[in-house]
Design a protein that fits this description.
The protein is mainly α. It has one domain. About 85% of the residues lie in helices and about 0% in strands. The chain is elongated and about 55 Å long.
Length: about 100
């Protein structure tokens, strides 16, 4: 690895450490991902910076996936809780008939 490559990797580590990914909302993280993709696809940045952006993008993707997983779990819990109430209500109706 050349000294410029080492510097690039060190800068990438420093850059990714500066941003607390966990504080980003899903929408903010997706916006940052879209910006990164646009810069890479437009060729606005060189290879090394593209790799750095790709690494950051993977972290953002994992963060987004984590948010979606938690939302799905909450939704499923609410659905099941709501389903239990609905079933209990229909059982009472059947018993009263």
């Amino acid at each position: 690895m050349t000294s410029s490559q080492k510097k690039s990797v060190q800068n990438a580590d420093a850059d990714s450490g500066d941003l607390d990914w966990s504080s980003l909302t899903f929408e903010d993280a997706m916006g940052k991902l879209e910006e990164m993709i646009e810069r890479i696809e437009a060729g606005e940045i060189g290879l090394e910076e593209s790799l750095t952006e790709y690494e950051k993008g993977l972290r953002l993707f994992r963060h987004c996936r984590s948010i979606l997983d938690r939302a799905e779990q909450r939704f499923e819990k609410l659905r099941l809780e709501g389903g239990d109430d609905d079933n209990a209500g229909s059982d009472k109706k059947d018993a009263n008939e």
